[in-house]
Amino acid sequence: MQDEVLILGGGVAGCAASIALARKGRGVTLIEREPAPRHKVCGEFLSGEALEDLHLLGIDVTSLGAVPIDYVRLAAARRAATAPLPFPAKSLTRKALDTALIAAAISAGVRVERGRGVQSLSRATANLWQATLDDGTTYEAPTAFLATGKHDLRGHGRPKDPRQWVAFKMYYRLSAAQTADLADASELTLYSGGYGGIQPVEDGITNFCCVVQRRYFARAGLRWEGLLAKMQQDCPHLAMRLDGAEPLLDKPITVTHIPYGYLRRTTEDGLYCIGDQAAVIPSFTGDGISIALHTARRAAAAYLAAEPAPVFQPKLRSAMLPQMRLAELAADGLNNAFARAVLPFCLWVWPGAMRVTARLTRVTQPAAVAPQAFAN
Fold first, then answer.
1. What is the DSSP secondary structure assignment for residue 263, as one 8-state letter?
2. For the purposes of burial, counting CB atoms within 10 Å of the CB of 211, is it exposed (0-12), middle (13-18) or buried (19 or more)?
3. What global pTM score does this model have?
């Protein structure tokens, strides 16, 4: 089966790119390994840039139940400091967002193949990419977009993660008192081996997503229950927040091999890499969804302008590099014992520091001043 563009991965980046290209009259096939949208390891934070991109894609997150997020709170040990966010933000589960994006892609004319795993992507000829699926079916197109998120495709992998990060996601229904206290804030909780984020999502549910180094997880016995107890011991604020909370999943969702700080340098002709396959920012920034949309928009604009992928990819890297490095430096600070001890006090004295950090670590630009690939 041959089309103009083949997109591998039906998450935020893949769907966004497919919608943009289909709206411009391109024939697009999108292949997604999951048969239906599901919950994923994701902080589910939608920054102002992400909200603008989603609006241009025709996604009304408010109608989907998105919750406004007006404040950021940092908690370490028994201290916590709160500051207003310097931009509008909301929170929405990935399952709800991905469901809306897949529907928008189908409505735009994208041929969506769900429940189809891709085994390999290789050159069929000098000017044709061929994707081979689990069942042996092949799809071909002159251009391919690699949007497989945190999952690497054989032959197109990213570098190994030297710190061996492990990420976990659990939904809770907090007690009435803790729900009221959390309110409309996104909280960052710090531990000796990583950090976590807790914030409300739709339907009165709270998302807790954390990332820890494997050695920290090993000290907790390589079990979720032990890890949760250790994190609460390290950060009593988290223990307070989860006191009386009801877990809503049988077990946490987890993912490993997260190469934070990765920025793809090069790519092959006709292969545009987007989302986590282009850049992986430290999770504390809450910029993951925004980056997925941003890279999809820029890659679609490059393709429509006939800008070759080997030209586009390093340009994208150069544009994102300064803020990505700042985010890495900030993440290293969060993993420093001295910083964990003094940060909440410093931020209590000067809450504006959190607003400055949030602004400086934005790696995206508003769609209003960027290529209008998402516009109808």
1. B
2. buried
3. 0.92
> Cβ(11)–Cβ(95) under 8 Å?
no
Ordered DSSP codes for 116-174: --EEEEEEEETTEEEEEETTS-EEEESEEEE--TTSPPTTSPPPP-TT-EEEEEEEEE-
Q: How far apart are CA 332 and CA 310, in angstroms?
A: 31
* Predicted confidence (pLDDT) per residue in 16-47, tens digit: 999 999 999 999 999 999 999 999 999 999 99
Question: Does the structure show a pLDDT above 70 at 224?
Answer: yes
Burial state string for 231-269 with b = 16 or more CB within 10 A and e = fewer than 16: bbebbebbbebbeebeeeeeebbebebbbbbbbbeebbe
Cβ-contact 297, 371 below 8 angstroms: yes
Residue from 15, 101, 21 nearest 58 by CA: 101
Find, among 36, 34, 31, the residue nearest to 133 by Cα: 31
Beta-carbon contacts of residue 99 (< 8 Å; ≥ 6 apart): 37
Calculate mean pLDDT across residues 187-209: 94
- DSSP secondary structure letters along 339-360: HHHHHHHHHHH-THHHHHHHHH
Kind of pairing between the strands at 45-46 and 90-91? antiparallel
Distance CA 120, CA 375 (A): 32
CA distance 146 to 97: 20
Summarised one tens digit per residue, pLDDT across range 82-130 is 888 888 999 999 999 999 999 999 999 999 999 999 999 999 998 999 9
Contact 367, 361 (CB under 8 A): no
Strand 143-146, strand 253-256: pairing: unpaired
Q: Give the ranges where the chain is alpha helix by DSSP (H).
A: 12-23, 48-56, 94-107, 176-182, 214-219, 224-234, 236-242, 288-304, 309-334, 337-349, 352-360
